Amino acid sequence: MAAHDTRSRLAEPAPLAPALSRVLAPFRTFTRTEASGGILLFLATVAALVWANSPWGDSYVDFWRTELAIGVGGSSMSMDFAHWINNGLMAIFFFVVGLEIKREVLVGELATLRQALLPISAAVGGAVLPALVYVVMNGGSEDVRGWGVPMATDIAFALGVMALLGSRVPTALKVFLTALAIVDDIIAVLVIAVFYSSGIAWNYLLAGLVLLGLLGIANRLHVRKPLVYALVGIVVWVMFEESGVHATVAGVLLAMTIPARTRIDSAEFVRRSRSLINDFERCETPGRSILSNHEHQAALQELETMTENVQSPMQRLEHLLLPWTAFFIVPLFALANAGVAIDGGFVDDLSGSISVGIIVGLIVGKQVGITLMTWLMVRLGWTSLPEGVQMRHVYATSWLAGIGFTMSLFVADLAFLDEERLNAAKMGILTASIIAGTVGFALLRWLTRPVAGGPKPQNAE
Prior knowledge:
- There is one protein chain.
- By secondary structure, this protein is mainly alpha-helical.
- It is 71% helix and 3% strand.
- It has a two-stranded antiparallel ribbon with strand order 1-2.
- Strand 1 (67-72) and strand 2 form a beta hairpin.
- Helix 2 (18-52) runs parallel beside helix 13 (313-337), helix 5 runs antiparallel to helix 15 and helix 6 (155-163) packs parallel to helix 18.
């Protein structure tokens, strides 16, 4: 046992400076959750494909088309299972995306213009060029409506692939990919709101915006109870769903109203916590249960209140919901949407303009757009690469950005209303994501391999 413990300690990386460790802690938690969620997402995708192509394949379609009505009083809303997932549960996913966006803008990689310029320019290049590639290959036909499909990057899958390489990948490169994917999500939300919403009912939309405005006022008045935002948020979701603007947009907008301020600062928290712990220790009575020690209970309750006050509601909600989205909502979305029946016409569908446009857009458009825009911004001196990251790392990462899975499937479901075109889009997305992930992994593994006698790669921890 002692030998095992010694090996474990020797295998552990050297600790970072306390200040840097505190700064990187939220990002580490986020990365670990997203990377682990990527594995579950992959398993859900495989399960969907196996189910759709099994002898019980018909039940795959029938199950997700089962109607479910939810009502309160005399009002009800009815959708099939797939739409409850895509329009309902995915609104929670987009709410978490909104919280991540807000955090990055306030204290992360998007907090300053110089910091933000690199991931923003890379994301714009990696979104615009794939869309242009798709339009060129499908221009003049009805299929051009799918131009938004190859614009997206799936952060869970991309970080999951990076996680397979462990500490060989510089932390700064993971941060770059995360920031790029978050900007990519912003672009995707704007595209969905503007181009994939139809028949807008302005009265419902106005009602939803008014409610969001009231939540913004509640934020300014220091209303911090998550229940208030949750109850009003449900009504906002219903208003957006009825308005014709995709309901997931409501999730991002709702996230912008969540308070990001803390009630006490870290110095006050440390001072008062130490005082409470000292009080707790002084009140210790041997043999007496904590259940009967009122001084202990009072100290613990006050400490719990202080712990809550030193965190913002935005932090608490992100910490609470991120595991749910990574381990339940997104895999369930994949299970409901990734199932494609592969039949005799598979090759013809895969060689069609929809599939080819998506494949070329995600693979070629992403890597060229991201790499070119990054190189241009650095060359002009408007920004710089993170420490330990070189252009070859950016190029390898641009391949991983071609994994468009979750968001691409989501946009495809909005873009194509008939089953044949939607299946062609799904096959293109799956094919491109497999190729992009495989090549991206191989490139990163090769580019970050240890050099004999040279410096070791920057430790991811």
